[in-house]
Amino acid sequence: MSDDRSAVRRLESMEDLVSLCARRGFIFPSSEIYGGINGFWDYGPLGVELKNNLKSWWWQRIVRSREDVEGVDSAIIAHPRTWDASGHTEHFSDPMVDCRACKKRFRADQLGDAGKCSSREGSSEHDFTEPRSFNLMLTTRIGASEDAAATAYLRPETCQPIFNDFKRVREAARQKIPFGIAQIGKAFRNEINPRNFTFRSREFEQAEMEYFCHPSEREKWFEHWRDERLRFHHDIGLDADRLRTRAHGENELAHYCKAAVDVEFHFPFGWQEIEGIHDRGDWDLSRHAEYSGKDLAITDPDTKERFVPMVIETSVGVDRTCLAILVNGYAEEELEGGESRTVLRIHPALAPVKAAVLPLSKKLAEPARALAARLRSRLNVFYDDAGNIGRRYRRQDEAGTPYCVTYDFDSETDGQVTLRDRDSMTQERIPIDDVAARLAAAVDWPT
Ligand code: GAP
């Protein structure tokens, strides 16, 4: 979705986007009336539609359009032994330091972002402690008992319950290797320094798929899923010059990983990961077999070979991708006559509202409302008759609405309305009876 307009300003500072998101009800601090809670965000009426559209597109691409991937929706709290088996209780930590003067905490590997100390006399440098390991899992308690056995964890990634469910799902769905299991859901990490708006949050959503294959095919499937996932990010409209893949070096790999590639997006705060594609080998299934005492190996029905499948994982952050979509789409444009507009040029299939129905005058409210009601049976449509038409267009541009349908006095006699395109701002006269089909085709995702 690049543009060739000369007087276009792309997003340079996150503050402009944060302000638009709050003003228009995309995303804003959770518990705002209490001053917010660091690392937690709420999605408002436009934000939840954007997020749902992205999740539906992912689900369609990964689960529904394929014979070899099944979906699940598992509990957020898994048996605590799950996290011993996965290595999270032992390894899932970041190095943390405290400043003895201002009492703030920082990630020891991100001290460049720590800023100045506000409390130290005679120096603005922090007075750091030695780094120590801080486990990122959020704990809770189950039941009335206060003993340690009641401690449980809010899952730090959505994939572990998939491994717990592997045997059941394979048998129930009668799948043979290779096949995958996917889920979308909340994950929780007690991040030391949540930052960059929703980019690093303490509660976020992941869309993950674990693909189980024969050891001889792991490289083939790793390459397949790396290419497939990069294609998805192009398809949803992220600009090619803001997307890249980056392979992890040996010393960067997580404890479970044999190989990893990140899909990175260029945010105003630099190149950052939005998705990871990981070769997890047989780490997870072998460890869960060991800790649960259940045999998770399978037998090839043709060769009778018995083996533990290898896992190729695709793991995308839903909130990070939403943020990338908003950053990518944001533009401020100078228009003829000295006017300007802020527009969210997001893919029509992701746009929260697909079309706004705007009567030219309040006198036309009745037939315009009737048209909006008809369209609403298939699409998320907004009706607005407040203010002058130019201002109403601007409001929709800012919400990313790809089409405005203007009902005017001629519509009463010629049975036509004006269809305005958000990006080109061109206007076209079309029959009222064609509007629903035209919009439905234009806002669908490509197959
Ligand atoms: N199961 C593998 C896994 O969880 P990860 O690289 O830790 O891998 C995958 O996370 C994706 O989840 C990341 O690419 C990112 O998009 C998202 N993610 C991770 N931590 C996040 C956080 N604190 N806030 C928002 N999104 C996060």
Question: How would you describe the overall organization of this protein?
Answer:
This protein is α+β, with helices and mostly antiparallel strands. A seven-stranded mixed sheet has the order 4-10-11-17-14-13-12, sandwiched between helices. Strands 21-20-22-23-24 form a five-stranded mixed sheet, sandwiched between helices. Helix 2 packs across helix 8. The chain is globular and about 75 Å long. It starts with 7 loop residues before the first strand and ends in a 5-residue tail after the last helix. Bound molecules: glycyl-adenosine-5'-phosphate. Glycyl-adenosine-5'-phosphate binds next to strand 11, strand 14, strand 17 and helix 8. The site of glycyl-adenosine-5'-phosphate has 19 residues, from strand 11, strand 14, strand 17 and helix 8.
